[in-house]
Write a structure and sequence with these properties.
This protein has about 100 residues and is an all-alpha fold. Helix content is about 45%, strand content about 0%. It has four helices and no strands. α2 crosses α3 and α2 packs parallel to α4. The radius of gyration is 13 Å and the shape is globular.
């Protein structure tokens, strides 16, 4: 979390337990949760949901979609999950599906 907070000084309070959710769901599904956590950091630009040029991305924070699942560019926002835990779980399960 310190790594994430260093790169996003305005981290929303709702993310305070996000690393714990990655560890919880990752261990349950036998996925390297630390890799998934860093994928989230890159995909969301450290939970700012902004592109490198500062413009908003296609996925919005309220979607709890930490890996851009279903977002294909050009304004397609992708999937939406009801809360942080479910969004993390979806990403972990997506990684499981990709790994066979």
């Amino acid at each position: 979390m310190a790594f994430l907070k260093m790169r996003n000084g305005q981290l929303a309070p709702r993310y305070r337990d996000i690393a714990k959710w990655y560890q919880h769901h990752g261990e349950a599904w036998r996925v390297r949760w630390d890799y998934a956590f860093f994928q989230m950091a890159l995909e969301t630009n450290f939970l700012t949901y902004r592109r490198g040029n500062g413009e908003p991305g296609d996925v919005q924070p309220a979607q709890n979609n930490f890996a851009g699942i279903g977002a294909t560019g050009g304004g397609v926002t992708g999937d939406r999950f009801p809360d942080v835990s479910t969004g993390v779980l979806a990403q972990i399960q997506h990684l499981v599906a990709y790994s066979g």
